[in-house]
Design a protein that fits this description.
Structural class: mainly beta
Largest sheet: 2 strands, antiparallel
Strand order of the largest sheet: 1-4
Distance between the termini: 28 Å
Order of helices and strands: EEEE
Helix content: under 10%
Shape: elongated
């Protein structure tokens, strides 16, 4: 079961401790990368296309809760304002 990702009008909040800023996110990503190797053989990713990105779990960094992280509205989202990032 995947966890919803925050969007432009939402953010994560731990309902147990109130944390809004620190989370450990476990995700599975499937991507196509253009890898450029220099003459010494060191790789560098020049382009990356995300084909699929699934958030498997979100854990609160403050209290370690995994079942208390929920999506809540960002401040100003209900007014139609764009959040500053």
């Amino acid at each position: 079961m995947s966890v919803p990702a925050p969007g432009e009008t939402t953010r994560w909040r731990c309902s147990l401790c109130g944390n809004l800023t620190r989370f450990d996110v476990t995700r599975t990503t499937r991507a196509v990368e253009f890898v450029h190797l220099d003459l010494a053989g060191e790789p560098r990713v020049d382009e990356r296309e995300i084909l699929e990105d699934t958030i498997e779990s979100v854990r609160c960094r403050w209290c370690n809760a995994t079942d208390s992280v929920q999506l809540v509205a960002r401040p100003g989202a209900e007014d139609g304002e764009t959040p500053e990032g």
